[in-house]
Amino acid sequence: MGRIPVSYLINRLITFMLTVFIAATLIWIIPRLSPVDPVDVMLGRMAAGGGSIENSDAILTQLRQSFGLDQPMIVQYLLYLKNTLTFDFGLSTASFPTPVASLIGNALPWTLGLMFISLIVTFIIGNLLGALMVWENTPKIWKVAIPSAMVFTAIPPLLSGLLLMYVFATQLRWFPLTGAYGLNVEPGWDWDFIVSVLHHGFLPALSIVIVTFGFWALGMRGLMITVQGEDYSVLAKAKGLRPRYILYRYMIRNAILPQVTAFALQIGGLVAGQVLVERIFAYPGMGKLLYDAILDQDFPVIQGVSFVIILMTALAVFLVDLIYPLIDPRIRHEM
Amino acid sequence: MTVLEIKDVSIDFPTSRGVVHAVTDVSLSVPQGRRIGFIGESGSGKTTTALAAMRMLAAPGFVSAGEIHLNSLGKTDILKLNEEEMRRVRLRKIAYIPQGAMNSLNPVMRVEHQIWDGIIAHEGAVTQAELQRRSDAALEGVGLDPTIVGRLFPHELSGGMKQRVCIAIGVCLDPDLIIADEPTSALDVITQRHVMQTLREVQAKIGAGLILIGHDMGLMAQSVDDIAVLKKGELVEFGPTRQIIENPRHPYTKELISSVPLVGGESFLDPSAAPKAAGGDSATPLLELKGVSKRYGAVTALHPMSFRLDGAVPQIISIVGQSGSGKSTMGSLMLGFNAPSTGEVLFRGQDVYRQHAAEKLAFRKDVQAVFQDPYACFNPFYRVNHALKFPFERFGLSEGPDHTRAAMEDACRAVGLAPETVLNRYPHQLSGGQRQRLIVARALMLSPKLLIADEPVSMVDASLRATILKNIHDLKDQHGISILYITHDLATAYHVSDFVMVLYKGHVVEAGPPKEVIGDPQHAYTRLLIDSIPWPELDRDWGSADDARAALDKLAEVDRRPDTVYRGSVPGFELSQG
Amino acid sequence: MQTGAAAPETAAPDTAGLTKAQLRRMRRFDNPWRNPKLITGVSILLGIIALGLLGRLFWDMDLVFTGSGMPRQAPVGIENIRGQVGTLAHPLGTDVSGKDILALLIVGAPNSLYVGVLASVIGMSLGIFLGFTAGFVGGRTDDVIRVSSDVMITIPPLLILVVFQAAYGDITLTMMAMLIACFVWQSPTRLIRAQVLSMRESGYVQMARLSGASTGHIMFREMLPNLVPYLFGSFIANVTTSIVTAVGLEVLGLGPQRVPTLGRVIYDAINSGALIQNMWWWWGIPTILLALMFVGLLLINLGLDEVSNPRLRRL
Questions:
Q1: Contact A240 B89 (CB under 8 A)
Q2: pTM for this one?
Q3: Which of B252, B195, B109 is nearest to B542 (CA)?
Q4: Which chains neighbour B (Cβ–Cβ under 8 Å, 3 or more pairs)?
Q5: B237 plus B363 within the same structural domain
Q6: HSE on the CB side for C29, CA within 13 Å?
Q7: What range defines the domain where residue B226 resides?
Q8: Which ipTM did the prediction report?
Q9: For chain C (length 315 residues), average pLDDT per consecutive 10?
């Protein structure tokens, strides 16, 4: 649908890189402002944890060098940036000497899978319901039911997760309480494993979807009301188009555009919500990794996980920004 | 043969304050191939009546009595069809051409797809080749090149092109009746003529009936066969155009006809009042522009120009142009809102853009403005007296609250408003005309030396325009204020001004006293403008669509040679290009 | 005469033939502040505040400490897993270490609200300042503010705060509120900047400039009053975001360690296996209370939306 203007691309790319850079910098600076230097604490803990491991002294010496602790601050910072941007977050102190990167590598697929469902499915359901609230041909019952469901959308996924878990996992026992797959199945691409994964993922996903769809529905409702009053919707009706066609091709098609922008802005908050849901369900994703690291005061993991989640968020925003000109032909003129 | 028959239709709108009877007992029929004009001011029920025939009344409105028959449906009352049957009537039997040309097309869909979806909705599966053939034919019919325009998105079209696409959509299924709701209200006069002639041409070709809704008697006179005059929901007069124009029976019809300003003819102003001298320092001119130009990026909004307004004797200088001519840019330059790219704007010898705070305040007191949109000029948060009281006190003109109130009340009376009924209201409680008069009253209270009036009457109902212009004219005559009148309307400029400049794409193309420039234009552009104005004179030839198209070609010629034609000068004002 | 209403206005409206109920609905339509959602939302929040204030008068606050009562007591009249029936001494039961749940709620709920409101007030003030600056000063300043709000809106505050707290350990409620405030200025900044840019060109601001108004006058007397509905909505939304972030931190075991908060109670409950031991009152009651708080805030926001946008209202 036409080419994306280069200036727009550059603009979004700069924002993306700036986001990653600032996040990385904040993660580095904050601990160094604290009275106790966490790197010292960290190395101390590693030394303690590594007592029983062969070669631990050699590993630690090498690590000290890689942090450049004897170098000026600015060199330490640049070294950190280089390491971080190459996904080298050092070694976990709690499970020494496992590299943080490999811990994250194990957790990331689970988080991405859950994120895909929680973000995309919620976005679609929410917008559709929001549109139906405004559409004149929506059955009466829907117009009553959707706004009532909206009340629950105030609740953060963390709390809905707790409630769902209590009802469906501990009381009714329809779904497992925690984990991503049963202890009795081996990870692999077989039927049992997939069923087990879906069975385990259902409640965490539901607890996000059930409360976040309303955010989209509410936004969509407002936009649909505006679009409904636009001249092109009036002309669409005057053209005798079928109501369903008007709904999809004229109304939702236009009302969705600001929602896509809002989507980019909300990803950060939604991902944070998901981190907490993972922690509640002990789902083996980034959220649980983060929580365990906090319990163990495993600072390299905390830093690494935070950075990767922010990177994922920024990347998602960047992707949405890339898609946007494809769905709105006017962007070419505004840039 | 009658295409549409409206029988004793009444339309009600239940609102929070009770039921509003928007239309009462209107009966009317549209014969095949005939053009009927619905004319009236806002709130007259003209659009409401037409929308009732489409069954598309805005939410709470409903037809409370009467029947509407469409000939091709036999005896069935349109109002009794079910939704699906009604859907099939729209576009195929009755096409609607909307008012807001700017927003009537779906912004994310290519133009030809918007023609196709109408065809598919009524005829089901149609082959791609057939769709393409028909959309091409429809676009060609309205003078657009289908190979280019068909593939474009609406934002890539000009206003006139968008409106012609809407016409193409409207006629692609050969409907029995076309309802055009002020199809040219957002367009300038040259484009208006082209679009209106296109509409008449395609309507005549398919032989459909046409209902043209509008508020401009001039446009009606040039475009329709019969006129229906509506006032407050009632049909007050209906008859052939010639009878309505030449021999109107109802006083309201007369009022509508006389509210159209004509070039030449009788003035609505009182010519006897002699302007009083401002008594300023005649050595330094009041306002002087020295080689002023304005660029926005690569676009030049205003080419270098210079003028000198003495202001010793107050004058009204009109700046006439269509949208994009640079006339509003000139206004904001002179108000100190928008620094020029080159040159300087001098007020009493001082550069407007190089003043310190105290000088700035004095400048503000002496140069005031009336803007186009009376709805936006009042802060919705305050009562309207805030707009009058605040500058009066700010400029140190007030001698205390009682003095301020007395000054506000005097100013209101001077523009013909009753102070007690307007001053303590919120803006939304007043009409557009009342608000615009309040803005004039505000200017009066501050007694500036110079007033910039930027399209002061273009958003006001026709019947009030003369009154407001007279108020503004009084500022010159009775209060010695020099006025720069910025407008697109040549007829009013003809009557109020002492000197006229015609602006086209940032160039002054013709300038001089109004009797010469507008009464007897020499420049091709000025002539084109004047030829394009629709007047309530039936024997005048408004030209065909081809004429209008040829005229647009002539414009291209003007673009290449934008020289100024000087048509004489008046004392106290000097103009030079460059 | 034009009154600005949507319906075409002609003759005086005719009120005959309407029932009393219809008239009442019409009047409610005329006074947007009598909005049922707004009223319900405000009542819920006032109720929670009242619980915090009155509770201190009528209940013993020392019960928040460990060992204040028998551990694992169920709410009054309900049996716990060991068959003990809850008593009036601890009407909402106790946790695993004998802390009284009611006392925890009375202390914790106002704390959560306090963090939310304080963070939001600071964030809004920052946002108003930056939004007006960006909109008015323009140029390079505007670019910097715009890009940094774009960047900061992408970064989930929770993660930066996690890093912060992991490095610093215990913090106070006020500290936490101020930290959260660093991440809730972006939305109001963007909102106000956009509004200021559009208002700058509006007729009444031009008129004010013609009237010799100072920049300060234009900002605070002409623009700000018209922004109030937006600011209100944005404020409430920010309170929600701040509380969600605070509770999130608390549930991760961060946040103030010594002050009882609702999130902290939930954290303790999950950590002590309250779900498996079926001690639903321990985590369930604070969860419901928080949920109510969020519902109240949402209702206020929806109500405000309807007040400022009449098209959302229905007759």
A1: yes
A2: 0.81
A3: B195
A4: A, C
A5: no
A6: 17
A7: 2-258
A8: 0.80
A9: 37 54 58 79 91 83 74 74 73 78 86 92 94 88 89 84 80 89 90 88 89 89 86 89 88 83 86 78 86 89 78 55
